Every structure is written in C-alpha cells, then in structure tokens.
C-alpha cells in the first residue's frame, strides 16, 4: 500500500522487480557484453522458510534476537543483514566466494542457473556455505531473497568497474622511472561487477534519497565492521 516503505507506484515495475521469477544477468566486458538467463524462483516451495532461516542465522540475530526481530520491518536493516548473509564471510552465510579458477569440492560459479538450487543446498547441508560463487551469484541470490520478502530488487552490472581498495577515490597505478609497471597497491579495474539495487524510502536521509538503493553482497572490504 502507498504508505509502505517499499511501495512502488508503477505497476509494471512492481511486476518486474517483485513478482518476476526469471531474469537476465549481464557480464563480459564493455566491448563484448554477454548475457545469460537466471531463475530467481523467489516463490518456489520452501524458499520463504529458507529466507527466514537466513535472518535467524545472522550475527545480528545471534547477538540480540529481540532487537533484530524488532527491526525486521525496516528494509534498510534487512538489506544490510541479508547482503552480509548471502556471502559466507564472517557469518557462515549462504555462498562461499572463489576467484581462483579451481573449484574442487564445489561447482564452478558459471555453472549455476538459478537461486533455488543454491538456497536449497544451503539448507540441506545443515546451513554450510555453498561452493562456489562470484559477484553475479551473490547478486542473484540476494535478488531472490529480497523479492521473496516483498522488497523490489534488481541486479545491476557495471562494466570497467573500479575497485578503490584504499578509499582515496582514485584508481592508482605505479610505474618506475623507466615506465615499467610496478605491482604496488591493491586498486584494480574489473571487467565487470554485479550488485543490487532495492527500492525503498530513506526516512533517515530525507525524501530526496528515496528510491533505488545500492546493495552489494560480494565480500570485499569491511565497511564499519
């Protein structure tokens, strides 16, 4: 309804970003953009119960269940909790990241085609992290979880994606006096990166900031813990 923090007035957008179970994820690089289908499956059997299990296994709930549950009406709070829990870092969440190119003991991130198998595997294993994921897997699973809970969500692909590891708002490259590239600094530019946007109001920041909000479930640097 219109007073809800996640109310989306455009009916077609509501159909797309809450109710649609299938979508396309873009990847590749800026000169050769590729795409592949994904089954978000947010209304498949048991997915809602798994989403509730994700919240109940978060560090926030384990540390203070009463406070956690009292904040679950707030999409800002849920976005932070769930974007943390979709990856396995720090909290034994849903998906374990792997960028090594070696995927023994799990599945190549490129082989997944939908979120349902990942979420079901997490539950069936006794809530052990599913192996393996990369950015589009984290983003797709987060899309499923948030849509299942009624929060309008979409996957976003950014090409030539700057990764500023030292927080100086620059991408730094280092060269010696002869022009040879030096392997210094952790900044990089990825071919692409996939994250999420969710639609909700920002009563904490004011109405001009309401609308699409960026969430990123790929484990990178900590932000405020």
UniProtKB/TrEMBL annotation:
Name used for this protein in its record: TGM3 glutamyltransferase
Question: Keywords assigned by UniProt?
Answer: Transferase
The protein's matches in SUPFAM superfamilies, at most eight in alphabetical order, are given as:
Cysteine proteinases (SSF54001)
Listed Pfam families = Transglut_core
Domain annotation Transglutaminase-like: ranges:
127-219
Provide the gene name from the record: Tgm3_0
InterPro entries attached here?
Answer: Papain-like_cys_pep_sf, Transglutaminase, Transglutaminase-like, Transglutaminase-like_sf, Transglutaminase_AS
Instruction: Provide the species name.
Output: Pomatostomus ruficeps
The protein's GO terms of the molecular function aspect are: protein-glutamine gamma-glutamyltransferase activity
């Amino acid at each position: 309804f219109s007073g809800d923090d996640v109310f989306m007035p455009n009916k077609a957008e509501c159909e797309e970003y809450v109710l649609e179970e299938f979508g396309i994820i873009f990847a590749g690089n800026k000169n050769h953009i590729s795409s592949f289908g994904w089954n978000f499956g947010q209304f498949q059997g048991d997915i809602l119960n798994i989403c509730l299990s994700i919240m109940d296994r978060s560090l926030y709930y384990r540390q203070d269940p009463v406070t956690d549950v009292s904040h679950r009406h707030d999409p800002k709070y849920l976005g932070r909790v769930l974007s943390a829990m979709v990856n396995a870092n720090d909290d034994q969440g849903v998906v374990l990241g792997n960028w090594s190119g070696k995927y023994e003991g799990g599945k190549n991130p490129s082989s997944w085609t939908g979120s349902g198998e990942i979420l079901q595997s997490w539950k069936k294993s006794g809530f052990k992290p599913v192996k393996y994921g990369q950015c589009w897997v984290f983003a797709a699973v987060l899309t499923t979880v948030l849509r299942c809970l009624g929060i309008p969500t979409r996957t976003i692909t950014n090409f030539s994606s700057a990764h500023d590891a030292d927080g100086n708002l620059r991408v730094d490259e280092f060269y010696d006096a002869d022009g040879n590239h030096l392997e210094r600094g952790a900044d990089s530019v990825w071919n692409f990166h996939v994250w999420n946007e969710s639609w909700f109001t920002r009563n904490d920041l004011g109405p001009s900031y309401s609308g699409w909000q960026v969430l990123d479930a790929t484990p990178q640097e900590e932000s405020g813990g």
